[in-house]
Amino acid sequence: MNILVINGSPKGKYSITLQTVLYLEKCFPEHTFQVLHAGQRIKALQKDFAEVVKDLEEADLILFSYPVYTFIAPSQLHLFIELAKASGVDLSGKFVTQITTSKHFYDVTAHRYIQDNCQDMGMKFIKGLSADMDDLLTVKGQNEAKRFFKYVQWCMKKDSYEPLPKPSKPAARIKVHVPKEAAKSSGKTEAADQTKKTARGKEVVIVTDCRPQDDQLQNMIARFQKVLPLQSRVVNIREYPFIGGCLGCFNCAVSGKCIYTDGFDDFLRNDIQGGAAIIYAFTIQDHSMGSAFKQYDDRQFCNGHRTVTMGMPMGYLVSGDYSKEFNLQMIIEGRAEVGGNFLAGVATDETDPDTAIDRLAKTCVYAIKHRYVQPQNFYGVGGMKIFRDLIYLMQGMMKADHQFYKQHGQYDFPQKKKGTLVKMYLVGALISSPQIKAKMGNKMNEGMLAPYKKVLEKV
């Protein structure tokens, strides 16, 4: 079997994920593994994608291999998928799967992103392997890798794969009405808005990847700026002189300084994260915010795992069939929850966009004025527990993250709550005795409610 490995890591042959592929190559010598370092060579592929079209067409199995970066795949792999779709190469009916390594922080959304895009191209998708970064160093992890590949072979032999979704036509976009006195967004705060008051002396920053031909998105931004009673400023990341996407080099782990010399780390902290709120505006591309936004997201790793914008409201202006993009919805909510941001809303142009945009503006203003932040849900609590344990173990290398976590009380390990542990042992001893449990009757429930009654009495 001819297997084409799409290595999405910008580290090329130094990719940790790739080592699992090399392990499988040794364990299954009857198959041919050809590795394409797509993440490392993405700029060359942008200039000439034709050189890989033949390899894609001749492969019996396409295997995506990549580390999980910021909820999805690295921006370099995003761009590879865009190029593959634009090339017109016919991959329908071809088997495809994936291997990732991570600390399981939103690996599910990364896997679903690859699945959705492969199924767009009519490919036969086989559920992939999500491994921990250290799994291959254990016998258990090695066995899991081998069992995974045996399963892939069985699926191909039996022609078993994830069902292709029913094709659906994109819904017609509903035109956004901009007040007559408002012109299209020029990327700068309009002079007419100088009379608007700005909460705490800060502007609302609108981050977008808007192109000149994106009239609908421009109108969504223009309406939001006009109905927002605060000053706002547009930052178009397409105009920023990025040298490249995140390299995963960890140069920023100690100092927070990016290895690139394009100044993005300072620009991010001073021109974007210093605002009163951040609104992201984009058109859905390939089930995501697109490769330009993914590059922006990945490059934010100069902040490491530090939730530096916690408490800041966040919102979205989205053009496209957002209601059908369940994975994208999870990513947007998860990002806000993990970051400790209040998600003020997602305004789309699917139904009544004018009302949706106006509501987003009102909610954003309320959140800024009252500094409103909701408690984290499962997306936030679960994600931060993964980060907490990771940074604690790697504190010697990720020094900036470690200091941030200590200062903000994010090392909330349950084993440190010794008083609660003792209480639970006592309660466990009581309820394990049928005689004592029978005598207690409803007193246990009353005892559990006692602290809450004290709170109610104080109101």
Give a written overview of the molecule:
The chain is built from 17 helices and 11 strands. With 459 residues, the protein is α/β, with parallel strands linked by helices. Strand 4 (95-102), helix 5 (107-120) and strand 5 (124-125) form a beta-alpha-beta unit. Residues 182-194 have low confidence and may be disordered.
Which properties best describe this structure?
alpha/beta; 11 strands; 17 helices; 459 residues; globular; 6-stranded parallel β-sheet; 5-stranded parallel β-sheet; 13% strand; single chain
Write the SSE topology:
Layout: E1 2-7, H1 16-27, E2 32-36, H2 42-47, H3 50-58, E3 61-67, H4 75-87, E4 95-102, H5 107-120, E5 124-125, E6 129-132, H6 139-158, E7 204-208, H7 215-227, E8 232-236, H8 252-255, H9 264-272, E9 277-283, H10 291-299, E10 314-319, H11 326-339, E11 343-348, H12 353-370, H13 378-393, H14 399-407, H15 418-431, H16 434-440, H17 443-458
Parallel strand pairs: 1-2, 1-3, 3-4, 4-5, 4-6, 7-8, 7-9, 9-10, 10-11
Helix pairs in contact: 1-6, 4-10, 7-12, 11-13
